[in-house]
């Protein structure tokens, strides 16, 4: 054994404790850390011939990068719909790395643990047992997996086995949506259906939700055309929901595949206040839900729930891999999603679900929604900002009180100053053709005090930018 490996092995416990202490120090001050910063250009040294051991690597990391760690999992990071990491989820994630189980290995605990976790998630979302779940990396791969099964279904409607014959054997395919997430369009490209297969339907006035009459009209004009409809269950700007029940009812009159992108909106199901937004979702063919958003587990975790695991098997099976067994006879999750080799990402979710239960997640959702609505109310009263849509759940979409033609440049300068200060992080967006900003609250750590601090910071930066603009105009 290499001497440095031998040394690290002999001091394994000490290295783990040092790492835990370092992580503990970081988490202990996460509320005070900046949520963003300007990164300098850091020179990249070459690979050393001789290593420095685990403790040396930890010290080097701290020396080179420690000052640049930011609170991306902190209570005032409102960008990218990023949840924090619950204490139990972090324990599970560390353990997943320590035991290093291949989730595909049925000779270990991994398969049983994954199956149980998916069952817990079905119960959390009140989904019927008819849905088979599978873990993937995030909403992008979940949408990809659901739409891959949908593509196989489309092939069946035309007598084509797409998994065998390829997408070129399909006729002109249409995928319908009103306000699709970019990951849906990306998935269409990766699946060979093409971005141009997307038909964007009109929305209800002042909404991001589909006008169901537009869908009915499209069906009337294309009566014999099988298609895929991607429903929004929580749009990124306003957390708007398509009328899923009305869309599902149309499936009785015309065959189509209903995929629901519920990356974070699916968590409406955990609260009696909001679950009506999802009425009818138990009629969907496939559903995307992210775990590293409102479930607050570490990044690299999402689920795809599907009523058609047989179609997934046709697409993703490892045919001809004798060492993996017959996919049709030996159920294994690797035959139902893109990845073969993957970490046991179910374990952090299992820890957090067992630790906090349905009540804990109901409290997180309702707490964050109350905070987002309070955030919106305070922005409206500030004088600097205006909401572009009511705060429906956990996202506030807003812009400045000024002429529309000045918005884009003002927002650019504002966000540059805001991010440099690092107290709160929001992202730019576009809504109804207007340059805007959005704040997404899905973190279990966020408190009412954080909301007050965030709005105070937004107002302070807005006032400073306005003052500078006035001086420049006068000069």
From TrEMBL:
Q: Which SUPFAM superfamilies match?
A: PLP-dependent transferases (SSF53383)
For whether the record's keyword set contains Cytoplasm, the answer is no
Q: Cofactor(s) for this protein?
A: pyridoxal 5'-phosphate
Q: Which N-terminal stretch is annotated as signal sequence? A: none
Q: Which UniProt keywords apply?
A: Decarboxylase, Lyase, Pyridoxal phosphate
Question: One short Pfam family name for this protein?
Answer: Pyridoxal_deC
Query: Is Lyase set as a keyword in this record?
Result: yes
Q: Which family does it belong to?
A: Belongs to the group II decarboxylase family.
Protein name in the entry: Pyridoxal-dependent decarboxylase
Q: Which organism is it from?
A: Chitinophaga caseinilytica
């Amino acid at each position: 054994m290499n001497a440095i490996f031998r040394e690290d092995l002999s001091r394994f416990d000490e290295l783990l404790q040092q790492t835990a202490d370092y992580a503990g120090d970081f988490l202990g001050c996460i509320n005070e850390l900046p949520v963003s910063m300007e990164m300098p250009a850091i020179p990249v040294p070459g690979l050393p011939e001789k290593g420095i051991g685990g403790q040396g690597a930890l010290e080097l990391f701290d020396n080179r990068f420690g000052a640049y760690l930011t609170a991306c999992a902190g209570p005032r990071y409102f960008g990218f719909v990023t949840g924090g990491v619950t204490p139990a989820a972090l324990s599970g994630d560390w353990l997943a790395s320590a035991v290093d189980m291949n989730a595909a290995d049925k000779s270990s605990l991994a398969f049983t643990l994954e199956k149980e976790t998916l069952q817990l998630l079905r119960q959390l979302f009140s989904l019927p047992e008819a849905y088979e779940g599978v873990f993937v990396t995030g909403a992008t791969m979940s949408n990809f997996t659901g739409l891959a099964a949908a593509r196989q279904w489309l092939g069946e409607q035309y007598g084509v086995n797409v998994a065998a014959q390829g997408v070129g054997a399909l006729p002109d395919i249409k995928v319908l949506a009103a306000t699709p997430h970019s990951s849906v369009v990306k998935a269409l490209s990766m699946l060979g259906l093409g971005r141009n297969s997307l038909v964007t339907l009109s929305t209800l006035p002042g909404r991001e939700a589909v006008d169901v009459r537009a869908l009915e009209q499209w069906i009337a004009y294309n009566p014999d055309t099988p298609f895929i409809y991607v429903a929004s269950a929580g749009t990124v700007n306003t957390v708007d929901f398509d009328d899923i029940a009305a869309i599902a009812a149309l499936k009785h009159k015309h065959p189509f595949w209903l995929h629901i992108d519920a990356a974070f909106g699916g968590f409406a199901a955990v609260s009696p206040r909001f679950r009506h937004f999802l009425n009818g979702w138990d009629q969907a063919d496939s559903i995307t839900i992210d775990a590293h958003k409102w479930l607050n587990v570490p990044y690299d975790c999402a689920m795809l729930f599907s009523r058609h695991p047989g179609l997934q098997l046709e697409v993703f099976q490892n045919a001809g891999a004798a060492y993996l067994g017959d996919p049709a006879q030996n159920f294994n999750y690797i035959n139902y999603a893109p990845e073969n080799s993957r970490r046991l990402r179910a374990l952090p979710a299992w820890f957090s679900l067992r630790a906090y239960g349905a009540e804990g997640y109901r409290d997180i959702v309702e707490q964050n929604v109350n905070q987002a609505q309070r955030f919106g109310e305070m922005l409206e009263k500030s004088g600097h900002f205006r909401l572009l849509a009511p705060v429906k759940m956990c996202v506030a979409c807003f812009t400045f009180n000024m002429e529309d033609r000045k918005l884009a440049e003002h927002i650019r300068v504002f966000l540059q100053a805001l991010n440099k200060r690092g107290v709160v992080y929001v992202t730019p967006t576009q809504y109804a053709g207007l340059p805007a900003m959005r704040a997404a609250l899905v973190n279990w750590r966020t408190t009412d005090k954080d909301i007050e601090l965030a709005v105070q910071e937004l107002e302070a930066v807005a006032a400073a930018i306005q003052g500078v603009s006035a001086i420049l105009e006068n000069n």
